[in-house]
From TrEMBL, chains A, B, C, D:
It catalyses: L-citrulline + L-aspartate + ATP = 2-(N(omega)-L-arginino)succinate + AMP + diphosphate + H(+). ATP binds at A13, Y14, S15, G16, G17, L18, D19, T20, S21, A40, G121. It is found in: Cytoplasm. L-aspartate binds at T123, N127, D128. Its EC number is 6.3.4.5. Signal peptide: none annotated. L-citrulline binds at Y91, S96, N127, R131, S182, S191, E267, Y279. Pathway: Amino-acid biosynthesis; L-arginine biosynthesis; L-arginine from L-ornithine and carbamoyl phosphate: step 2/3. This is Argininosuccinate synthase. It comes from Mesorhizobium liriopis. Residues 181-398 form the Arginosuccinate synthase C-terminal domain. The gene is argG.
Length: 406, 406, 406, 406
């Protein structure tokens, strides 16, 4: 392919599935390039060894299978949760936050192996192509990024399957027709999009859901848990210290069982159209509530309000693929500065889709019953101060009212 | 009282309860002022006629009992919901939004009756004094606002009860001790604060809740509803056109029965301390989800993101009592401009605390399956465009990466 | 040209200069399209009739020459100045604000004449292509926009001149070599870019400047003027009521003579690179200072601060070409709401590059010497109020300090 | 004085002038408190030794005279200039930024000396009381802050002078009448307020200005300078490395001589009223332009725009006295993160009030003529990319236009 004439070696984000196997072969045949595969364990579930075997079968010499779960949670998920990030008020950014990590590894492997390009399997209509590519460009200005879905000449599913057949790529039975929806998954969430979900008036069928039971099918009993935080990140569950990925996996199990974290959303893609997705973020949904609860007693009002005001921008940057952009890093510096004393314990009840905060406590608490009590506060607060406070806050409004009456 | 020497006539926000009855009598005796009472039906529940009777008993000549429910919902609640307003990410501002309406009526009645002051029963530690007073000052720069809780010399509950007894104010049996918590209610919400809630680690007792069943006690069956919107406001429920207050009351009933809208929050007061409240906003919680859902298909991305970014500021203004401030009105102009075509229908399932959006449709929809489909879109979208889009979005990041590598 | 095969009639933004004449001929010959020309008098200076004559010479039947100066100032420049808009802190957006007006007329003429496309002469590296095209798309989703600089196969200036010669397009002597810089001009400003300006360390040569004398060459005498405002817009100069464009032209003359409004800037283009420009905005620089001065006494603090906070976003939207986007219109609604009582008079001194505000007065003034005076204010302000004001503003800081000391 | 009954030792911010001498004596006589004086050299000009002598004369045992100029510029002025901070678009915050430094020293000395209170000479109408007190409370939650102007019973200037006479405080001849305006000065600026400036329509008399010649009186010759930056701060002037305070003093001299940095402003005070001030910030005005210029070539667009958007909030926090609040520190973390590579050189011309940037260069430049040139860029930028960029940016606008046409 003329466009990629100079490409000699490509690092491919490889899942082992049919689509990325076709891409692998297309890179070999159309570009005549050597392919290095990178398969990441992001906690998506399922074995990775079959991906290795398949890559071998397709003639790959340099196969990288890496467990990045701890890195994913420590360096990407937790920093994002410090911000209470929600895109368009509702979406916990499960897909968005994984893409920069993958690009980071692809670029690193390119550097290690002397590859001149990386490749991904995202289509030309979605956000993921943007996230992969902006991340790669921010890490290496000269890297080439190949997005075969935008370049190849296949016009239909049949073309793809024919190509697979021509190149001895095994096609699983259930892939011979078109999937009723497409899925992305990692430790933070599963998302489902497309076909059966394309009518935003039609309720998502139950079978679309990947990793949560329905609230209606969840147990009738309440599950009570505690989460402990330090510097804004969860560090223990029910009193047990756990590594980031282990803790997150436990929260996912708890959320799954209790029907927590489903979201049916029509969102605005960065590439300009609206799309409908079904997201399941069981552990993240619990974590968001718990994090807000511990912030409630440990974060100053000025700090908290500033965080809330910049949050939509921060979430938008992540959604749009600007994780490695300086403005995201600047916002992160602001957020991290606020989290230094966000520590303590939160108690929650999980019940049929509900995450109910029932208590929070901290050695770093800013809550003071002495100040707030209806009873005698022994001088902690002088109610007379309120009069001056209100009068000076109101002075400009009174001046304005007097002017408007003139 | 020297401070209020010139006050001759006062309009009092009068609930008919013990506290405002004591205030009424205190205004008569300490200030030697004529008192006009204003009792508003904000949908708080309970009869208002007893308040009229009690005012008569206490010698009031000019007694105003007004049903302001439609005004409350049309002119205050709905405009606020157009913004998806949440204070500190969670609180639906049920108390905050009612205060400016009450002040507006107090000031109007003052003008009608030639009163030179208004009075309210909010304490010196809370936000409500600020909201009442800033609203009043913004509407009349010369109005005097009397906050007896800040001025009188009573030191304890016993002092208050003694004063009541001395002035033939009936004290209901259940008011002779101190209340385990205090309540504010209107059509939008009930809030509970104080005493049994003052330890933020202790779970709120079930009996604190005023207007919702617990999710655990809600029916095992799903309730499905539809809400229709026009210009950002709900206009019909299950196909039936309803007035704002009627519609809201119906949503409250639906929410109450399904355990929807409870919130246990530690929040930051404008007067500077943290306080813990339990809020119940059954109808509002449903409405917020439904409004976001109809916006998802009818609001442009740029419009929606701008709204999300200014929302925390808007909510803070309302919380702090600046409803009648020019910056709130400017933000409202911005928000209202965005809502012109926010219309259509949302379908939701209510189930044990869950509000589950299952569909949305609109004649003004911006959602296009032609654009988003995985299948052949017949040219609606050219995937090649994505390459240029990404490359130019990435140009500055590549320039930066090249610089940083130098 | 295959890409534009279906185009039958094109409305071209035509200046009468060499470049747009080549475009005109290219559209006729390469696309075999009928061309309608639109030449706007935006106050750029110079005659428009030669453009008409040249279009006739090139065989155009439908020639539109329109004086849009009043529309430009009333509907674009003044609304923008209500916001005190500055891009990147310094740039008055003189080019950016003219582009949507031109697109609006191009699309209107396309509708009137049944044209299926519009064309402009902006290159593929700049912001103007974006502004023209986004404006057009926002006004007509089906319009085709042809940007010949991106499409044609000319590789060099020589290719262009050869094409001109081949098609009997007269080439003025001074256009036979390459220009040392390129210019855009309208009633608001002149900009110069390119070649001699490309080294940001090299001082712009004096001959680059189009419409201002150097501060060093301006008169030694001060010129004093007054500007009167209503609803945020200037309506009179030195007591004389003038139409928007006339008033603006007068301000330009005053600024030009006094060396006002030069700017040497390296800015960030929307398409991703930095560029260096020299801008001259004589009248606009005066107007900005005057508008801020009248706002100082007529605008409430809350309103003013909100305006200041959203201003960078507003300016960025205009710079990037989103004039007709809903978020710009929402921000405009917010801004316009604030300007209702921005009226009164400002006095300024103009002197060798300086715009010095020396006074402002208004019937709608919010300034009160009674409040601010160091002398006896007869009770307008109670200094005791400040204590409570400070204590409650400081309460959270004290709580924090106590926590941090623990 | 009952209110301060428990105060035994007070640290007073002492200028040596009449007003703070009266306060000193008032603290001794009315509070019967031991007084420690703190006199800071902030670069306000004038000798400090007379203040020491006068304090001795008034019986002070513990007299602290400290040169804080380097600390002031390094830890307060430069961090603020990294943000390009302007309050209400124009004011360089010269008074605001000095107050927290003074409070910091007062509190430190209180800790060293076992004092239980600090005292300042700011009146009850201004912002400075707020700045002093919020800073103190943020550093020591238990510190008492005495503001004698709010507490004492003097009703007039005559009362003050009588008190001075009664207590053998020398009253300079020129202080026997009332000053025609009041002044604050430090290395960053001088401000003048009050009396002759109270009518915002009246031009400030020339004699009000403290530290700049009028532009009209400045030399006819241009002065050309260069400023070198590292990490966003100036480090050298005309090639000479200088300490922060020395460099700043030199800039002040240059600004003073060339009539630079005068501002006549009506601003909004935090305590609620508008006031008119005349500010002179000669060096700061030069520095702001120079800093923006070096940012223009070294700061990424995303970083720069984010800084511009948060700047008004940052400036407001400083103006209102929240220097030591967590939200200011969070914003500072964001700003400082952006400045890591803001380094290089700026060349400026100073001429009769004008600060004219004529060049900027940096080893960390992000400016690329290869990208921006009108001439052949040898493939650095592909103009075809612009088409996709525009089309996807315009997609939502076209969708909207199509909807609105339905």
């Amino acid at each position: 392919m003329a466009k990629w004439d100079n490409v000699k070696k490509v690092v491919l984000a490889y899942s082992g599935g049919l689509d990325t196997s076709i891409i692998l072969k297309w890179l070999q045949t159309e570009l005549d390039a050597e392919v290095v595969t990178f398969t990441a364990d992001l906690g998506q579930g399922g074995e990775l060894e079959p991906a290795r075997a398949k890559a071998e079968l397709l003639g790959i010499k340099d196969i990288r299978v890496v467990d990045v779960r701890e890195e994913f949670v420590s360096d990407f998920v937790f920093p994002m949760f410090r911000a209470n990030a929600l895109y368009e008020g509702l979406y916990l950014l499960g897909t968005s936050i994984a893409r920069p990590l993958i690009s980071k590894h692809l670029v690193q492997i390119a550097h290690e192996t002397g590859a001149d390009a990386i490749a991904h399997g995202a289509t030309g209509k979605g956000n993921d192509q943007v996230r992969f590519e902006l991340s790669a460009y921010a890490l290496d200005p000269d890297i080439k990024v190949i997005a075969p879905w935008r370049d190849w000449s296949f016009k239909s599913r049949t073309d793809l399957l024919n190509f697979a057949q021509d190149h001895q790529i095994p096609v699983p039975k259930d892939k011979q027709g078109e999937a009723p929806f497409s899925v992305d998954a990692n430790l933070l969430h599963s998302s489902s999009e497309g076909k059966v979900l394309e009518d935003p008036w039609a309720e998502p069928p139950e079978y679309v859901h990947q990793r949560t039971v329905s609230p209606m099918d969840a147990p009738d009993e309440v599950t009570e848990i505690t989460i402990e935080f330090a510097k804004g990140d969860p560090i223990a569950l029910n009193g047990e210290k756990l590594s980031p990925a282990t803790l997150f996996a436990r929260l996912n199990d708890l959320g799954r069982d209790n029907g927590i974290g489903r979201l049916d959303l029509v969102e605005n893609r960065f590439v300009g159209m609206k799309s409908r997705g079904v997201y399941e973020t069981p552990g993240g949904t619990i974590l968001l509530q718990a994090h807000r609860a511990i912030e409630q007693i440990t974060l100053d009002r000025g700090a908290g309000h500033l965080k809330d005001e910049i949050m939509p921008r921060y979430a938008e940057l992540i959604y749009n693929g600007f994780w490695f952009a300086p403005e995201r890093e600047m916002l992160q510096a602001l957020i991290d500065k606020s989290q230094e004393k966000v520590e303590g314990e939160v108690r929650l009840k999980l019940y049929k889709g509900n995450v109910i905060v029932t208590g929070r406590r901290s050695d770093q608490s800013l809550y003071s019953d002495a100040l707030v009590t209806f009873e005698d506060d022994r001088g902690a607060y002088d109610q007379k101060d309120a009069e001056g406070f209100i009068r000076l806050n109101g002075l400009r409004l009174r001046t304005l009212a007097a002017r408007n009456r003139r």
